[in-house]
């Protein structure tokens, strides 16, 4: 630690990061009567959460290859828990979140439907996947030829900004904007006890019974700084991995060209070829936010090449759309997760105890409640300060991040 801090704050839990993991944890701790303070160095949701596609997965995506793995088992209970929250009868009140679609959909090209569903039949049927006859198809497929098979999947799709707002609003004064850059940690007896960080023009020392690292990709630098405070021979911090995506935005030039769409385009690959969610931008134009295989395989492509590839692929997957009046942009973003030996997706959330703190990467929005419960359970084990953090009235409140298509630096190609 440097010279005397400008302010000292005490809380039961100090949370780094205002994405879904940090925000759900804050809400969960408040419920349990624990005091907490959340520091966000950019804007709430600014990492992966606001850029996510908002799908509350129940595992169908993982079963596409036909096998029931740990990933699909672990996640199967999540949609029901979230639905209870969305209906205002769950552990956290999410009744103000905008549900873009109650279900999402799978669609396949000509002749692929029966083969695909045969492969994954038992798992997908258990998850409630249903074949939709033409008259029950959602708007996005009204113009699709009958040879395109469409399936309904009972997994809700949420508007990510409203999700961040709904979680943050009741605790707004506890979500503070911290200065990016170095954080000094203080440790004793091998455990992290306090952090010193810039908040507005001041340096704050925040002492907490438990420090929760929920900063997504930012955990890596924070943990390095924390490890320096622990000194040798401290155990190394839990390692993370980044899995990059090159996401694509398609925006209609004329109203009505792009229908609402919340769906995975599937083929014989083990994951979706493309995953589409949609919203309207500030001027009312519909935007498709496209991920899945297209974003994973596009990492090596430049922006123009990726946009060109996206046009070709989407024109072949959804030929009923007039792609000649659509503009394109691309966005690079990393998924931040606990490191796996294979470098592939972890099966579930990571919640690691380290030096008296807890480090987490949920790996999916859907797992945020699991992460928050685990952190709350650890918080119960440390003595409570029993005092509200003394936060000055003019402390900088963290704003909510912009959606990808609202970013000022976005370039339409
Ligand atoms: C493009 C994309 C689409 C996705 N779609 C889905 C989906 O449809 N369904 C699903 O379940 N999952 C989806 N995911 C995964 C999901 O979004 C993430 O697992 C989840 O949002 C991670 O949340 P988090 O809170 O751990 O991290 P983040 O959302 O990344 O939040 C971390 C926060 O910490 C802040 N921070 C960083 N460093 C510091 C620091 N030093 N001090 C303070 N704050 C700091 C960041 O600014 C950020 O706000 C998607 C991910 C991506 C990238």
Strand and helix layout:
Layout: E1 7-16, H1 20-31, E2 36-40, H2 70-75, H3 78-86, E3 99-101, E4 104-108, H4 113-119, H5 121-126, E5 130-131, E6 149-153, E7 157-158, H6 160-168, E8 175-177, E9 184-188, E10 191-199, E11 202-213, H7 219-230, E12 240-252, E13 263-266, E14 274-280, E15 286-291, H8 293-297, H9 303-317, E16 326-338, E17 350-354, E18 357-361, H10 368-381
Parallel strand pairs: 1-2, 1-11, 2-8, 4-13, 11-18
Antiparallel strand pairs: 3-7, 4-6, 5-6, 9-10, 10-11, 12-15, 12-16, 13-14, 14-15, 17-18
Helix pairs in contact: 1-6, 1-10
The site of flavin-adenine dinucleotide (FAD) has 40 residues, from α1, β2, β12 and β16.
Describe the protein.
The structure is a single chain. The chain is α/β, with parallel strands linked by helices and 413 residues long. The chain folds into two domains: 7-49 and 163-239 and 340-406, FAD/NAD(P)-binding domain (3-Layer(bba) Sandwich); 102-156 and 242-336, D-Amino Acid Oxidase, subunit A, domain 2 (D-Amino Acid Oxidase, Chain A, domain 2, 2-Layer Sandwich), CATH 3.30.9.10. It has helices at residues 20-31, 70-75, 78-86, 113-119, 121-126, 160-168, 219-230, 293-297, 303-317, 368-381; strands spanning 7-16, 36-40, 99-101, 104-108, 130-131, 149-153, 157-158, 175-177, 184-188, 191-199, 202-213, 240-252, 263-266, 274-280, 286-291, 326-338, 350-354, 357-361. Strand 13 and strand 14 (274-280) form a beta hairpin. The N and C termini lie far apart (48 Å). The mean pLDDT is 91. Flavin-adenine dinucleotide binds at residues 16-22, 39-42, 45-49, 51-55, 57, 178, 214-216, 218, 222, 245, 247, 291, 333, 335-336, 361-366.
């Amino acid at each position: 630690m440097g010279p005397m801090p400008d302010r000292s704050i005490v809380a039961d839990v100090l949370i780094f990061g205002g994405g879904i993991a940090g925000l759900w944890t804050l809400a969960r701790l408040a419920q349990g009567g624990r005091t907490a303070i959340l520091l966000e160095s950019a804007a709430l949701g600014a990492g992966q959460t606001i850029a996510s596609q908002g799908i509350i997965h129940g595992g169908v995506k993982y079963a596409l290859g036909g096998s029931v793995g740990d990933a699909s088992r672990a996640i199967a209970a999540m949609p029901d828990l979230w639905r209870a929250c969305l209906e205002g009868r769950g552990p956290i009140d999410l009744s103000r979140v905008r549900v873009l679609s109650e279900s999402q959909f799978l669609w396949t090209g000509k002749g692929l439907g029966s083969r695909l569903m045969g492969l994954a039949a038992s798992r997908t049927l258990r998850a409630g996947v249903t074949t939709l006859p033409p008259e029950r198809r959602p708007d996005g497929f009204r113009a699709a030829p009958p040879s395109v098979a469409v399936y309904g999947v009972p997994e809700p799709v949420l508007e990510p900004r409203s999700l961040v707002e709904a979680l943050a609003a009741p605790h707004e004064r506890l979500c503070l904007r911290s200065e990016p850059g170095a954080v000094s940690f203080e440790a004793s007896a091998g455990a992290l006890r306090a952090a010193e960080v810039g908040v507005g023009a001041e340096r704050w020392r925040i002492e907490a019974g438990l420090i929760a690292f929920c900063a997504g990709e930012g955990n890596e630098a924070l943990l390095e700084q924390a490890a320096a405070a622990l000194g040798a021979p401290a155990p190394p911090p839990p390692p993370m991995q980044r899995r990059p995506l090159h996401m694509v935005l398609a925006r209609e030039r004329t109203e009505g060209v792009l229908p609402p769409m919340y769906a995975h385009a599937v083929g014989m690959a083990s994951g979706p070829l493309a995953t589409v969610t949609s919203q309207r931008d500030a001027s009312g134009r519909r935007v498709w936010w496209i991920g899945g295989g297209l974003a994973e395989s596009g990492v090596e492509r430049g922006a123009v090449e990726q946009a060109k590839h996206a046009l070709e692929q989407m024109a072949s997957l959804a030929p009923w759309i007039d792609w000649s009046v659509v503009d394109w942009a691309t966005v690079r973003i990393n998924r931040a997760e606990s490191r796996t030996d294979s470098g592939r997706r972890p099966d579930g959330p990571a919640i690691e105890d380290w030096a008296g703190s807890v480090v987490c990467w949920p790996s999916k929005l859907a797992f945020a409640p699991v992460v928050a419960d685990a952190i709350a359970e650890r918080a119960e084990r440390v003595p409570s300060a029993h005092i509200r953090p003394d936060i000055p009235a003019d402390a900088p409140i963290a704003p909510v991040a912009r959606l990808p298509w609202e970013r000022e630096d976005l370039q339409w190609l």
